[in-house]
Specification:
By secondary structure, this protein is α+β, with helices and mostly antiparallel strands. The protein has one domain (about 5-75): protein bp1543 (Ribbon-helix-helix fold). About 60% of the residues lie in helices and about 20% in strands. The protein contains three helices and two strands, in the order ββααα.
Amino acid sequence: MSLVEKRSVTIRGHRTSYSLEKPFYDELAAIAESRGLTLASLVAEIDEQRSREANLSSALRLYVLDWVKQSSSKIAL
């Protein structure tokens, strides 16, 4: 069993895929839910904002990391 799972999503009418470890996927889904977005909408938002030099999977991981870091810094205050 692989630790990384490949998933498909449609972004602006274009089918693409990304690969994430389950903990990153679970956190991404939780972030989407907390923001009142579908997972596909959140992925599309991240895709639109990412640097074209970064691949989508990396951009998703960095988004999750940033979200968790921001959340933990708010709790520490």
